[in-house]
Design brief:
D-Maltodextrin-Binding Protein, domain 2, 2 domains, four-stranded mixed beta sheet, 12% strand, five-stranded mixed beta sheet, disordered N terminus, 11 strands, 46% helix, 22 helices, alpha/beta
């Protein structure tokens, strides 16, 4: 991986405060009328297939609303194909090299760039020429391949942070605004444990869930630059600074549920939803699951930044992945896929998803943030505190390293935390053995 490649990686969107300011900038739709006219309309692109990497109900509702709106506008037929998230992600390389759907949901940054560099994605530069003024420049950067062309259309973003129920913390007499550093955090966990609660709900059956915890502790202990350099191979997994991450992480184990490796992310979420756990580190996408349960459950959900560990780094970094869409080069209808994404990225397509009532922090700056509910507004506040934005470990490093190597090694660490040095040596050896990109 060349040093030059990092210049346009999604990982590096947060080097300046302008990135953050752009991300949460004021709402406003520019030139929407002309753009809507460009979104299909004549049915010429024909039927197409749309692959979605989720079977969960809240996003399914949104994606099906998007498809229905596109079909109504253009007369084109869209076949909707849904796959469970882990299965889709783990098999994407084979999927793209076979007979993939025409358009599909995917991730910004490095994970998109990797497949674009393999010639497996369609150039969407002309789509960006038509809808690009509806997005801040930071999103275009995250959608750009190593060759300077765009291969991705953003849909939404979400922060990773410490989630909890406001009512549970109130019952324990804990002020969430007072959870600023590691000591504050451990006091909160002790309070929950004394009440018979799981303090820190955790899951890693999918092999990716714990990556977010590694990301944030590494950023808090060693800083943003060390974190992104480690994932890019410019630092060593065997460095004592990496081992220090696991020293802090191990302190959380007594507060976790004892079946971490038996649960996927939604299992940990259920512990919080059912009031069996007091807090969980996860991306805020699951707000829709709380809202599906009841409005009261959703209104009880809150997020704060993960606490400071080293004051030199503060709480200056956050994982905030960008989700969206690509067109598969080996699909049967490239033009149809592009036409669909032109609509999906336009405010009309975005609005079809927003009209479902499922919470979504849209990447399109046409969304009026004044209409955000309290939980969405708090997500903006968490983002506003961050100086640096990372995508997520399995998006910020090579896909042939993240899933096949880091995922299983983190699972091995949960089985025996005292084996950390052996695990780090294995991680470095497997990185060193990777073929050149």
């Amino acid at each position: 991986m060349s040093a030059d490649s990092s210049k346009i990686r999604g990982t590096d969107l947060g080097f300046t405060m302008n990135r953050r300011e752009l991300l949460i900038g004021a709402a406003g739709v520019a030139g929407a009328g002309a753009l809507l006219a460009a979104c299909g309309g004549d049915g010429a692109s024909g039927p197409l297939n749309f692959g979605v990497r989720t079977v969960d109900e809240p996003p399914t509702t949104q994606f099906k609303a998007l498809v229905a709106a596109y079909e109504a506008k253009t007369g084109n037929t869209v076949t909707y194909n849904a796959t469970e998230s882990n299965a889709f992600q783990n098999n994407l390389s084979q999927y793209l090299q076979g007979t993939p759907d025409d358009a599909f949901t995917w991730m910004a940054g490095y994970r998109m760039q990797f497949f674009a560099d393999q010639g497996l994605l369609v150039d969407l530069t002309d789509v960006w020429d038509e809808i690009g003024d509806q997005y801040n420049e930071s999103y275009k950067i995250a959608s750009t391949g190593l060759d300077g062309k765009q291969y991705f259309v953003p849909q939404s973003w979400y922060p990773w942070g410490l989630h909890f129920r406001k009512s549970m913390l109130a019952d324990l007499g804990i002020d969430p605004d007072g959870i600023n550093n590691w000591d504050d955090f451990l006091k909160m966990l002790d309070g929950m444990k004394s009440k018979g609660l799981i303090g820190f709900a955790a899951a890693d059956k999918g092999g990716w869930e714990a990556m977010g915890t590694f990301d944030i502790i590494n950023a808090r202990v060693n800083g943003y630059q060390y974190h992104v350099d480690l994932l890019a191979g410019r630092e060593k997994w065997t460095d004592p600074r990496t081992a220090k991450v696991f020293e802090y992480w191990e302190q959380l184990i007594p507060y976790m549920n004892d079946n971490v490796l038996d649960l996927e992310w939604d299992g940990a979420m259920q512990l919080l939803l059912q009031r069996k756990a007091g807090a969980m580190l996860m991306g805020s996408w699951f707000g829709g699951n709380f809202k599906e349960q009841s409005d009261a459950d959703y209104e009880d959900l809150w997020i704060i930044p993960f606490p400071e560990i080293d004051p030199a780094n503060g709480r200056d970094t956050i994982d905030a992945p960008i989700d969206g869409y690509c067109v598969a080069k080996n699909g049967s209808n490239n033009d149809g896929g592009k036409d669909f994404l032109k609509f999906a990225g336009d405010m009309e397509g975005v609005q079809a998803m927003l009209d479902t009532g499922v919470p979504m922090t849209s990447a399109n700056k046409g969304q009026d943030t004044s209409s955000y509910d309290a939980f969405q507004t708090q997500q903006l506040a968490v983002m506003a505190e961050a100086k640096y934005i990372t995508q997520f470990l399995d998006r910020d490093t090579r896909p042939d390293f993240a899933g096949p190597v880091v995922g299983p090694e983190l699972q091995n660490w949960f089985k025996n935390p005292k084996d950390v040095n052996k695990i780090l040596e294995s991680l470095q050896a497997q990185w060193d053995a990777l073929p050149p990109l």
